[in-house]
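pasting for the record
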Amino acid sequence: MGEPKKLSKSTLSVIIIVKNEEHDIRACLESVSWADEIIVLDSGSEDNTLSIAKEFTGKIYTSADWKGFGVQKNRALGYATCDWVLSLDADERVSDDLRQEISNAILSEKLVTYKLPRLSSFCGKYMRHSGWWPDYVTRLFKRGEASFSNDLVHERLIFQGEATKFNAPLLHVTYKDLDEVISKINHYSALGARNSFQKGQRGSLIAAITHGIWAFIRTYLLRAGFLDGAEGLMLAVSNAEVTYYRYLKLSYLSNLD
């Protein structure tokens, strides 16, 4: 595929929040090295994340008082100066076809937000079922037209109107092995419980069990996770576990209230 035409009217900022992402950040930054501006906001990395980031951009900032993904992404957004903004996570990569779509889209004078179909991997396999594809995420928007919700986890982009869908995938290299699966089950269940608690929700053991079972059924049967083979079963089990522990942790927070 040929190089995208040089942008003459609109410019693009890429914003990425990081912490200890040395295993992912290089591939992410390489995939957007063509952007006009790359903003990296760190929240206290202790590995080589920042030294790698410095190879691609001088616009590296630090904000160690972590208040959640939504708040941190809004902070990163505040540093952006270009016409358009693309928000990425460190374990995501912009494919060549998606780069071309983005380059064409930001020349638009009418559309202001775009949804990207995200193709995610689980233990080395890209998942085409299990509710993971197409996992549309709204990440490209005209600066000043959108901001992020202040949720601790599973933040969303807040904007007016409808987002236009892209065709080319945003690649998401997540859950590289079972150790990472187990680690993220603990991490995301804790964040999810805190987020739900702050919104006034309460949990119980019965809720943990029933929601966990339902998460498995939804992933493996209703969303055809069985078509993803062994990884589909593994993903369904991990979804059930993270849901179970989220509601269980929420019940403990409820008891402390």
